[in-house]
Design goal:
four-stranded antiparallel beta sheet; 26 strands; globular
Length: about 350
């Protein structure tokens, strides 16, 4: 689907209109293709052609897209219904030459981590649904990540009995759940309970992982061997990081400006309800540099009429692609020159 009418650029950003609430976004090897989630019922997955500035619905539920591994996913109730597919966080893991495993947080019809195989090479990549891991009862996943040995991590933003207002005010609401290969189900990792566990990523050392604490506007680092105490904590400079991913060799995190004058300043809680942030805030992409011990500003812009709710960023072909949990479009800007 090409960009539609009414998709004119803003002062900072160009757009690919049509993808509904692309809350998370990943670049596939080769930089031509990206995969975007759709954080709404039936929005599912979109395959984006960066060069053509086009996209299409990727998982349709066609017979040739389903190959259920009943042994590995014995607790999965059955194939995913594309009409219900509500996709949030995404993660990729290399499983062979030209083969990737895509993990997707799904809220449509069930709370589960859906697992897809992606075959890359010789044209358009191919997608196959393999199965799912149900989330623990009552827990709603947010972001997902995977170590090279197949261990899967999932964040939960608000556990039962907690609210968005709680984490905005700095109270613990979430946690990180882990699933080891061959184990029966997800278990809560002790010490990972934070105010609004959001974005999630693993480190190339295959030992550490990064968790966004949305209520703290910070990234907390854990050692997978012992999660009872975090290793480090990085505070973001004046923005609210959402998702965090390695992309183009950089560890980028993206979110809305925290103190936005156009929206009355800081996010507020009134009568127990957190501001839903529908007012258009400035956007910020930060780069986490563990060696330097800081989050630096990678790219930013003021409030845009056509875009709000920045939640993720991906580098591809010299461009920075931006996703949103609110908008019906992807945003594009030229990537900053290497420093």
């Amino acid at each position: 689907m090409p960009p539609g009418e009414g998709c004119a650029p803003d002062s900072d950003l160009a757009y690919l209109c049509g993808p509904e609430k692309p809350e998370d976004l990943l670049t596939l090897p080769g930089d031509k293709w990206l995969v975007a989630s759709g954080f709404a019922p039936g929005a599912g997955l979109k395959l984006v052609d960066r060069e053509r500035r086009s996209f299409r619905r990727w998982y349709t539920g066609a017979e040739d897209q389903i190959a259920w591994d009943r042994g590995r996913f014995a607790d999965c109730p059955g194939p995913l219904d594309p009409a219900l597919f509500n996709a949030r966080g995404l993660a990729l893991r290399e499983v062979g030459r030209g083969e990737r495993e895509l993990l997707v947080v799904n809220h449509g019809g069930r709370e589960a981590i859906e697992v897809f195989g992606i075959s890359i090479g010789g044209g358009e990549p191919r997608l196959t649904w393999r199965g799912c891991w149900p989330m623990p009862l009552g827990q709603v996943g947010n972001a997902v990540a995977s170590f090279s040995d197949g261990t899967v991590l999932v964040t939960v933003l608000t556990r039962p009995g907690t609210t968005i207002a709680d984490f905005v005010q700095g109270r613990v609401t979430g946690g990180v759940w882990g699933l080891r290969p061959g184990s029966k189900g997800f278990v809560l990792l002790p010490g990972t309970e934070l105010p609004g566990n959001n974005g999630l990523e693993v480190d190339p050392d295959d030992r550490h992982f990064y968790v966004v604490a949305f209520g703290w506007h910070a990234v907390v680092v854990y050692d997978r061997r012992d999660t009872r105490r975090p290793v480090r904590r990085f505070v973001a400079p004046d923005f609210m990081p959402d998702n965090i991913h390695w992309t183009g060799g950089r560890l980028l995190l993206a979110g809305m400006r925290y103190d936005e004058p156009a929206c009355g300043g800081l996010r507020k809680v009134i009568d127990g309800q957190a501001d839903p942030m529908l007012c258009h805030r400035g956007w910020v992409v930060g780069e986490l540099d563990p060696a330097q011990g800081r989050i630096a500003t990678f790219a930013y812009g003021g409030p845009q009429a056509g875009f709000n709710g920045l939640s993720t960023a991906a580098l591809a072909g010299g461009e920075l692609w931006l996703g949103s949990y609110q908008a019906g479009r992807l945003a594009i800007v030229r990537a900053p020159a290497a420093r």
